[in-house]
Amino acid sequence: MPIVLDVAQYILEQTGAVSTWKLQKLVYYSQAWHAVWEDTPLFTSRIEAWANGPVAPELYERHRGMFVIREVSGGSSGRLRRNERESIDLVIDHYGKMNGQQLSDLTHSEGPWQKARQGIEPGDPCNREITLESMTDYYSSLE
């Protein structure tokens, strides 16, 4: 199974440099939709419901302090299978035209992020997990 860094690296190879906000949200949507379409997670790393939307802390550690990112150290797109790349490509096709703020706003309007942040004030820090179950329940209902 690939790791979150592999997924992020593949996204960057397809999109070119993007904001770290946008990368985090594309990684999140890749995980969610791949789980819906393939009935298996894309990676095992945790995704948390931070104030500005879903964040994979393991990926965040690689780009902390950056605004734009071009590559992910430790990530290798070569570890992705064809069906995994296809899922990511579909996510990029659908969400890739949006900027980081638009993607953040979109995630804020959706059930998985809202559920994980239940009882947390807007803007307050939060490290609660957005579970794979929450993602698959919500996004499978949109198919």
Report the uncertain regions: none
Return the string of H and E elements. HEHEEHEHHHH
Rg calc: 14 Å
Q: What gap, in angstroms, lies between the N and C termini?
A: 25 Å
> What topology, given as strand order, has the largest sheet?
1-4
Number of strands: 4
- Helix percent reads 40-55%
Number of domains: 1
Quaternary assembly: single chain
Structure annotation, total helices: 7
Descriptive notes:
With 143 residues, the protein is mainly alpha-helical. It has one domain. The chain contains seven helices and four strands; from the N terminus they run αβαββαβαααα. It has a two-stranded antiparallel ribbon with strand order 1-4. A hairpin with a 2-residue loop joins β2 and β3. α1 crosses α2 and α2 packs across α7. The two termini are 25 Å apart. The model has no long low-confidence stretch (mean pLDDT 97).
Structure in a nutshell:
This protein has 143 residues and is mainly α. Helix 1 (4-15) crosses helix 4 (82-95), helix 2 packs across helix 4 (82-95) and helix 2 crosses helix 5.
